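Before a colleague's protein record goes any further, I have to sign it off. I want your independent view on whether this chain really folds as the tokens say. The record follows directly below this note.
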Amino acid sequence: MTGNGILQLALYFVLILLLTKPMGVYMTRVFGGERTLLSPVLVPIERLLYRVFGVNPDDDMPWTTYAFALLLFSVVGGLLSYALLRLQVFLPWNPQHLGGRQMTADLAFNTAMSFTTNTNWQNYVPEAVVSYFSNMVALASHNWMSAAAGIAVAIAVVRGFARHTADGLGNFWADVTRAHLYVLLPISLVAALVLVQQGVPQNFSPYTQATTLEGAKQAIGQGPVASQEAIKMLGTNGGGFFNANSAHPYENPTPLTNLLQMVLIFLIPAGLTYTFGRMVRSSRQGWALFAAMTVMFVGGLGLCYWSEARGNPNVGRLGVQTQATAGQPGGNMEGKEVRFGIANSALFATVTTDASCGAVNSMHDSYTPLGGMVPLINIMCDETIFGGVGAGLFGILMYAVIAVFLGGLMVGRTPEYVGKKIEKYEVRMAVLAVLILFANVMLWTAPAVNLEGVAWDTVGNGGAHGLSEILYQYVSQTGNNGSAFAGFGGNTPYYNVTGGLAMLVGRFLMIIPLLAMAGSLARKKIVPESAGTLSTGSATFAILLASVVLIVGALEYFPALALGPIVEHFQMLAGSLH
């Protein structure tokens, strides 16, 4: 670890901290229907959309109707994407004439479910399989829709805590419309222009056919990259226009674009914590959530950077320079871009897996065992470390309900959170959501590891690392992240179908119990704090909340981690002794 590297990490966090409050205030005004700087331009468009689609934004939906609207919105979008992917050969903007031979039925199912659930898992090489039209209409459209849906659900859950004896959680169609118009669109537009200025392509040209210095023929892919890059990061989607994702120089050409992309990933999730505080009329509550997320973020980032900067001791035994010097980065540079280095690679890997984005600027499969374990643990924390847009907030609130209940039992205080009594039903719904995510990971991973000739035989690495690769896949898909260790052939009917189902369960069977919890809370009265109320707007609660997340995660996943990255770490150390 170097002073320069630590300074870069600190600079990033300071930027996020400075942006959290203004972003949170802005979103509070947007979803409260208040006037904003963009209202003169966007309010007429918003009203026109309501008239066209027959939506009354004042209709207050109970949680069941809100959940049904979410599912209908997602199912229709997923089916449309599947059809467009299968029919892309007949559609425009396809100069490479890509069709059903490249996008098979099982791959199209996996891909459609992936983008519908905000996962953007890619079992294919984008520039060799997907046309420009499919990229923009079948896939990138979900970068907007799934992100807006996640924000809408988060706002609905917050209303459950903020409202007093109410039957509804708001209007899904109004929330989704406002998320698109006021949040995602203006920020993505500015970000895309910056990316174009930095050298990211934005065109519809056929691939350039080039001849290398060795005389080989090479097709150089391009396309409408900048516009999709902006929303892929802001919406924490992560699906790359190119197979190398944000390690590709066309997606992420400069240190400035690298910093911008990481800021976009955390911008909305961090801001929503302050939005929560404003909506429940206590900024301290929002900052407590932010602090709990920060504790886990900093801990993971420190471990990842330390492990990658330390590198593999077996390499040092061979006489290779492993210490950082003025002309040598040292550490583990395998799978990393020289233009980003170890510090920014570790930071990007931590940010993208904390926020369920899944975009990568380095290959996680090439990390050291402990360095690679950090992204894995981040996703195992159920989108609580800032998390995806919207999903991070309702993920941490799920654990806040559990933490309040446990904290109240330990100290004999009334289990209340922001003025709402936490009772049996709310705890059951929160625990159910947690258990669904854990079961979804384990019930897909176990058979994949044991199915020789179907799943395990495609893994290029045996032993502990092979287990980590398969475990990472189902953890990433369940957590709607989309990053991967890779290292095995995922484009098979088995992985495409099981992976698509894992993504659907991880997205919607978590959201439904949380909306039910929010509906129950909205109907309750707000009770004033008393001497017996557990304080939840303090640093103590932030530490308790982070501890509950980590302890629950350890109880669920430690055996799998012990058989994967932990044993691989000790194998690496044992190798350095011989």
Summary: The mean pLDDT is 91. Residues 22-207+219-283 form one domain. The radius of gyration is 23 Å.
